[in-house]
Every structure is written in structure tokens, then in C-alpha cells.
Fold these 3 entries.
Entry 1:
Amino acid sequence: MAVHNMMYNYLGNSGLRVSEIGLGTMKFGEAKDGHYPGNTTEEMSHTLMDRFVDLGGNFIDTADVYQAGLAEQHVGSWLHKRQNRENMVIASKVRFNMDGGNANGSGLSRKHIIWNVEESLKRLQTDYIDLYQIHCWDKATPLQETLRTLDDLVKCGKVRYIGASNVKGWQLQQIVCESRYMGLNPWIGLQAQYSLLCRGIELELVDVCKNEGLGIIPWSPLKGGWLSGKIHRDVQPPEGSRIAYVEGDRAKRENSCHFSYTKFSENEQVWKLLEIMRTIATKHGKSVAQVAIRWLLQKDTVPSVIIGVKTLQQLNDNMGAVGWSLTDDEVEELENASKIEDMPHPYELNVMDRIRTNLCK
């Protein structure tokens, strides 16, 4: 067995242990109608997953819509041929359209969820999914219908645990409260965009997760490549990168504005943050990407961080975020450099909560 420094943390208020680095699969496969060209072949996907396991990883995250089902297929063929299923924690998601000609081909209705989980199980070549997550809120479907359906999937064994992704604070709190009121299985995780350049979930979602026992699983910890160390002032983004791809097409840029080159290159705070990260990385003999991921791993609400890679070099570098720590002073410096400016009301009053908490210590 390979020697590694990986730790395994409990996901939320559950007995499920996941590796502190999770492998995202959005870049597995290249569907004709998929996003972001240059994704991995099935062979390379298998190579990446093999290496991930060698380095101690046990948590793989996918979704039905990733490359129109190809990502799940690549994970499934790898699981079937090369892994003991029980050694792995497999997560997938449901919500978005998988059948454009079907009026019930999307959403969180009982019909769509049950059809979708069966299709995902076929692609994954497994009898169950460890963590099944709603990919986004569905305003059209009564929440109780969604909750009961997912609870039924747990009871019949097709799903082990339930989680959410990309929801708002009030939505997650409503999920928690309704599940408790209805006597259903609790949800254990929130997958959300979270990084030094995207800290919006700290306004409400982090508190909900802390209070209700949900683990936060960050996605896009490198903000689409902005925190990879490859972006420099007055230099265009590397050819083949996601930022370069999005920047080259106006429509795609608008749909993917969360890592737009133009948006961040004109923000002096971003360049100051990157300078601080490079200094800290040099001090520890680490990469900028490792500093970005390490900052997330030291959050007490974060059991695992999802990385997305296309090459072994990227995987090896990202996995180097384990086995060391930032100092308290470095964490404070990073947070001061990346703090949200001009906090909207009532969030600017959150400082009063911190003052009162400190007085109680």
C-alpha cells in the first residue's frame, strides 16, 4: 500500500469518512454538447483515479450532467474493472436536464429523481450511490415531494446519504427543518463554491452548516485557475485553460462569470492576494494552488475539498495540500487580503456577533 499523508474526516454529523481531498470529475469525457473542450479520455480518467487512490483518496464526486453522462460512465468503468467498490465513496447529483425532449427530464420531482438515480446507477455500474446531492434548488417542485423521494431512496438502499449543492442559506435551513419535522433522514453535506476569491457562503451558509451539523465540500477551490499560480498581471491566461476558453466566447464568458478573466484582472485586491499567496507558498516550499486548498482544509466546517484536474501533474500538485499547515498568522493574512469589501446590509452587522462572541470567551 502506498504511503501517504491523507486524513479521513467525518462528513457532517454522520459516520461517513471521506478523504480530505476529493476528486471532481467534471473534466472526465468530452461530449459533443458538453462544456470545455480538451477534457480527459476514458483512459486518462482511469489513470487519474488510480493515482488519486494511490495517494490516499477515497472520495470521488460526479454528476449526471457532467459531459452528458460520460463522466459517470468513466467512473463506472473504472469502478467495475479496477476497484473494490466498498473502498470508495462515490457522490453524484440530480437536478438539471438530461433529456431535452422530455417535459419531466429535469427538476427535483419524484418522477425525475427516481428515473435519474436509476440511470446514474447504470452508468456508474454500482448498486448504490454513497452521497446523492441535489445539484440546485427546484422552485417548481414542492420541497416535501423532493425530501420524501430522497428519503425513500435511502430506505431502499439505492442511496446511503443525502446532500445539497448550490443552494441559498434560507433554502438549506428549510431543508433541514422540514426533514426534521417530517422525521426523515437528515442531510449531511453542502457542496458549494468556496475559495479565497469566493467567500460568499460565509454570510449565512457556513452558520447554517455549523448549527445543523452539515459538512461543507468546496468546489472550484482554485477559482477556475485563478488561484493556481499560473495567472500573472498583464499576461493573458494560458492557452487551453478554462479561463482562456471562457474569455474567448462572450456567451460562455457571461455564463461562467465566476472565474472571468476580465472581472478579476481589473481588481487590484486580487493581485495583492496572489502576491501574498506566492510569498507564503515560497516560505513553505509549496505551490500557490496548495496554499489555496490548504486554507480551505483548515476550516472546521470543511471535511473535504473537491479538486478538478486534467493531468497527473495537476493532480500531484493539488494533492500536495495535505500533510502540512498554515500558521494562524498566515490564515489571518490571507483572510484579510480576501475579505469581502462593502458588505451589504444586514451582513455588515456581523461584526457585532464576533465582538459579542469574543466577550463570552
Entry 2:
Amino acid sequence: MGFLIYFALIIIIPLWAQMNVKGAYKKFSQVPSSSQMPGAEVARKILDANGLYDVTVEETGGVLSDHYDPRSKTVRLSSNNYHGHSIASAAVAAHEVGHAIQDQQDYAFLRFRHALVPIASLGSNLSWILILVGIILTSQNLLLLGIIFMAAAVLFQVVTLPVEFNASNRAMDQVISLGIIRNDEERETKKVLNAAALTYVAAAAIAVLELLRFILMFIGMNQDD
């Protein structure tokens, strides 16, 4: 019964977070901002206000595929947010520029996350293979190695949280100080940013739960010997 509850949680939590962010985005993408600035203009205004003239703003395909690329110094906004005049578009654009500001200011957690990328990528690809083989062969060494690789991927997920929350805080500061939104629009803007943050919280929570499950499995193997 416990396993059924556990697997239900790891399915329900991410779905709930995704529904939350999609619901908030859909709702506030229909609400025009008072400034009527499209997302691309919001991003450019914040970048210029912070002296980030070398960072470009580009349109990209997909839905909610917005991101900041530190390698090319580019803020990429999905078409709806690039052209959109809504509160949601302004919030998303400002959030991605928040990452560009972090990059400019050498934000410690962002640097740490970048350093973890190759290790986390290797860990996420190898961990499940090692863990499954370790379980099938009842090999404690393989299971432990898989857990170590998984821990690296989980650490990346956990470090992502302060990076995302900090970018959202920077976004709120910028859209308020630059007059992109009015005081009565702050609540709606925060709802969009908080809903997006929930997806990262959910992903980190699930990753930690999975790691703990395999750690307990490893401890159980040791006790059986």
C-alpha cells in the first residue's frame, strides 16, 4: 500500500505543478498589462536599464520554451511571450532577463549550477542503468554507484531552486522600478512567477524522494547480509 501511495505522489505532484503553471499562464496571458509592452520590449528595456547591451532577445518556437542562454548571451522568448502584451508575457520575459542579470553579476548559485551541468547530465543518464542492474544482480556496489550518480543529478535540481526564485525576485524588482507594471498588477505578476517556480519545487521534491527510496533500498541490502 505504501508503494502505491508513493508512486501516486510522484505522478500527481508534477502533474499538479504543471496544471498550476499552465492555468496561471493561460489566465494572465489574456490580461493585458497597463504598459502594453510586448515581452520582447520588456526584456530589452530591463536589459538596457542594467547595462546588458550585449545580450540579445530572440523569438523561439514552442510554448513556455523561454530561457536564457549564457553561452550566446541570448534571452529567448516563445512566440506568445515575444509578441504578447499580457501580464504573463511581461512576467516571463522579466524572469528570463533575471537570469541574464545573475550571469552579469556572477551570481554564486548560477555559477554552481553551470558547473554541475556535465556531472548532472552524466548522472541522470547513468544512474538508472546502474541502479536497475544493481537491483537485478543484488549488487550493493552497483547500486551505491548509481545512487552517487543520482545524487549529482538531484543536487542540480536542488541548486536550481535558489537560481529560479532569485530570478523571479529580480524580475519583480525590475518590472516595478521601471514602471512596466502598476502597483495593482503586482499580485497577478507574482502569481505567474510563483506558479512557474512550483514546477521546479515539484521536480526537486520528486528527485529527492527517489534518491531517498534507493538509499533506503541500499541500507536494506546491507542489513540483509
Entry 3:
Amino acid sequence: MSSTVGPGLQDMARDLVLTQNVTLDGVVDMSAGWADPGREAPDPAQVALNAEHMAAESALLLGRRTFVDFRGFWPAQAGTDTTGISAHLDAVPKHVVSATLGDPGWAGTTVHRGDAVETVVTLKAGEGGEICCTGSITLAHVLLTADLVDEVRTFVHPVVVGAGRRLFPDGGAPTSWRPVAARTFTTGVTFAAYRRS
């Protein structure tokens, strides 16, 4: 998963949006249990913002681990989820980059066994709305390194965990991003979106 793309490939038909929950100290790894979608009542303004993002999304892109986590959690929320996320995830076309995943076991899922960068270049060249990648830290790092990400959306949680994998990979080339949106919610979570300059 270490390929890079040539000049001009970032200017494709569909935007790739990387959406991540992140701690105040920049960690996206949730193994410490700092983010739990079912732990607290969401701010209605955040639910509305998520709905806006989901309405623009025509495909969901995931790595194997995040896909398995989602598959084990969200379908079980059908009927009780008031955020619309469960219904959206059932309906949206899902693309998983994995060399080891067998039957995905979730309708509307395509497993891509080839090179991650080539897969995403092909997906971006299609027509339709945004492609969203969330979680999937290894895949996200590949996409950032290959300069395939058009927008980064972060939901910053007011916690510090001290260790864990971060949003941007170590050793990457310096890049510039311009802020395009920011919101703060009653839960203390702050949303910020950045476009590639």
C-alpha cells in the first residue's frame, strides 16, 4: 500500500473526503476507548451536520478493520439509531480495500484486493458525489501520502490520551490546507474542515 500518484491525479471528478474523530493531542486510534458512538446523546446540530455530509456521500471507503468494526456495530443499531447513520451505512455503496477479507457479509459492499492507490484513483474517476473514508488509519495514511485526499474533516474530542496513531503519518512531506468550516457542539466536540491548497 505504498504507491504514489503523479501530478494532476488529485484533480479528478469525485472528491475524496477523509473524516476522522480525533483527540486534542491528534490521536485517531480509538483503542483506548475515548470515543463511543453510543455512550452519550449527540448534539442535534452535530446530527444535522452528519446528515448533510451523508447526503453528499455516494460511496464509503474503508480498510478491513474499520469495515469489520462497522459491520459488527451499525447494522445492530437499526430501529434504535436516531442519527440516521445506521440506515445510511446500509444503503451507501461500501468499498473495502483488503487482501484478506472474504465474503463481506454486508449488502452493497465491494472488496478491492488490488493496490489501494489504484483502487482509489479508479473510484475518484467515476461520477457521483463524495467518497468518504473514515477510521481506517493505515488506508488513510496511504491516501494522504499519495495526495489523493481533497478534504479533511475532523471531529476533535476534548480528551488527551497521550499515545496512539495520529491522523497524519510521520515522515510525510509538508502540505498546506485551508480551513473551510468550523463548528463547536454542546458535547465539547469541535468540527473543522480543511481543503487541500
